[in-house]
Amino acid sequence: MRKFKVVGKSVPKVDALALAQGKPLFTDDIELRGMLHAKILWSPHAHARIKNIDTSKAEALPGVHAVLCYKNVPRVIHTTAGQGWPEPSPYDIVMFDNKVRYVGDRVAAVAAETEEIAERALELIKVEYEPLPAVFDPERAMDKGAPVIHDEPDCKYIIPVFYDPKHNHCAHIDLEVGDFEQGIKEADFVVECKFKTHHEQHCSLEPHTCICYFDPAGRLIIRTSNQVPFHVRRIVAQCLQVPERMIRVIKPRIGGGFGGKQEVLIEEVCAMLAMLTKRPVRLAYTREEEFVSARVRHPMVMWAKTGVKKDGTITAIQLKVLSNAGAYGAHAMTVMNNTCAKALPLFRCKNIKWVADAVYTNLLPGGAYRGYGVTQAAFPMGVMMDEMAEAIGMDPVDFWKLNTIKEGETSPIFKALSETGRGVEMIVESCSLPECIDKGAEVFGWREKRERYKKQSKGPIKHGIGMCCLVQGGTVPLIDMASAYAKMNDDGSFNLLIGATDLGTGADTVLSQIFAETLDIPVEDVIVYPSDTDLTPFDKGAYASGTTYLSGMAVLRTAEKIREQILGVAADILGEPKEGLRIENKGVVSGKSGKRVEFSQIIKRALYGKDQFQIGATASEFSRLPPQSFAAHFAEVAVDTETGQVKVLSYVAAVDCGTAVNPKLAEGQAEGAILNGISYALTEEFIFDDRGRVLNPSFTDYKIFSAPDIPKITTILVPSYEPTGPYGAKTVGEVNINGPLPAISNAIYNAVGIRLYETPFTPERVLNALKEKRKSKIKQR
Amino acid sequence: MKKEIEFTINGERRKLIVKPNELLLNVIREDLGLTGTKYGCGTGECGACTVLVDGEPVVSCLTLAVAADKKTITTIEGIGTSENPYPLQLAFVETGAVQCGFCTPGMILSAKALLDKNPNPTENEIKQAIAGNLCRCTGYVKIIEAIKLAAERMRGRKR
């Protein structure tokens, strides 16, 4: 493995100190003169037609400057999904419609002098609703006679894919590689189960926040906490029907995203209000609004069927997926596709069948959420693996090792499907998963604990362990693009301008490290400036585990171009051919003569001396072969058989993200994802009433883990070297959120012998399953 | 009916005229322009708005400004300086405890309140001290590490 100077070192996150000092870095930390405050009126109905809106009283309220609703805003059908163009999500939403499709759907918006006035104005808006029957159960959504949620004539995909909104059918794809039925015939054991996963909110600590204003040239500036600034520019231009050149999107520091901000959720309304009022406008969600009107992880119903031979060979895998898209189809098809495209390549199996549907319901719209469909599929697949291992009497560790993809191997899934459709044929160039399994099992004490927990104590608390393996492909092949621009300054420092969007992950730091490594300079000499659509070149944004890998490659290529320019000037100064020169510690050294010239001399020559020019370059990279990141997860739980309470005692994750450019930041990504996953598995749950209202829109009632709740989490980075990535790096953002559901479910089974196929694993669900188990035992007698 | 209040914030005495129902968070962010204190939920559940009032961590989104009358307030801007950051701030940076950084100011202030009283806390005491500060990025692992590191260093300095 190569030795690096800056890559592989845990240099401090470049923005960390300013953040720890509370400097004004976030969207909401500025105050503009004359700024108005916007508020949105939400639908109280799950499904209703708006017969009329009377906004006259609201408009007449002193301090109110604008009221928007379907009557005065042009109807532009689009998608809120922050994806590349043409978006693989249906155009099924307009800024304001005369129909509402879930409780929390947008009805009207007000801009006023203060938030208080705006709120009062909302109360003065009179809306006449005609309530319509609603459908909440995805398994009922396509029934005959089910209410049609998207009956508007203009909803459509702009790419050629299946779409049948008249039956609430938002997406469908199926595929088969090999021969699934034949595979089942060859199996000694066949396992078949139905699984359900639940809604989840991102819970970024910073709510969605946007401030819009005009610069002196009359261009609209959108300052927003968003993961996809370039898509924001494109989609807002579309909604406002203005040219993109009139819009500049600036992304300050973001207070967490996790996919929730891969969406144009508020920017177009804020921009429209600014256009109408000619004043700066601020629009920020409250926490309650985050819960009732933002996006969620798509809940899914999944049917899995697998066949296995006594020797451990998996002969067949079938996964049927029904995804609950909610009221709008943003990300519905792509998240659904990932339950196959990015989840199933993990398994060495020739015969795979996958059938997937996404349906509209009158609940919160799904969206992007860290893991993006792989989280959902990892649950059934992880549990099925445990069941198959048990069926043939093999230890799960050995069974996983036997049946997971290895370096140099391929999966027919790669070619068959990608997130957006057609896949690419490729082999896994780097994979340390077998080592991850070994190291993880050793650190966790798998074999020893497996033995120990065969005998359970007499008391109500039972212990168990479970494991799973994970994969997450980075980037969307042939679609995603990233770019960078850099220039050299008088003192030999560099401005690095990147389209990549650091949403708290440390991307700015990691990309600076890649740049610094390539030019052999310290990170302090890199002045990084990210995500400003006027100043930085295009980047798809922060999603699909793509930043370190793809934006990293763009930065690497940029630095390489600059290196050539530097060597050219140095050659001129030294009077030696460029080929004999190399960059070393902020200077250029001749291998032949041993002469050295400093970067500061080189740039002075370039800027002021002879044949002057700006040393600088731009470069891009698009995704050709998406790298696969892997992990092996191990969970130890205590189950209280009296209360049903499940407690995770320890959790070990061994992670293959290629070269960890910044190990501490990579560990941080893993730890955060794991705890989010554990919290999702055990406590986070939306409660809806029979009219589709969220009953628990607060952190008190929607419980995410706080510090006292955490188990001992151990992250082990097990490097591999990805030849297509920057200095061997792959990605680490998402893969680790996929483990807790299957690992904990398997551990619960190991502890008390109940299989939980439905999430979250609440005390109630555990107790019910224990009761069922007792009943079935009585029946057997 | 507005009320006049007076408090010391980050070592500076301030007189303000506030509405009787005005929240301390809004006064700090908007009237005083100290934006290191964050709005995360508005209902006292996330701790992003944590400030110290007479050394005790309080959620400023649930505290009326008038209740801070005659008190001493410390916000994140009041500990350490740009040149000389507070040990907790440095420890958060070094351990990788800062990801998005939105919870960080509140988290650091809760930790400061702990360490001011208990310079040698156990891991459990640390967890309890930051129980009211939610973080969605880090899984708390490196935050706890940072507080331990800062405690060690601060004890060393006192010795």
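qc> The longest strand of chain B covers residues 3-9.
qc> done
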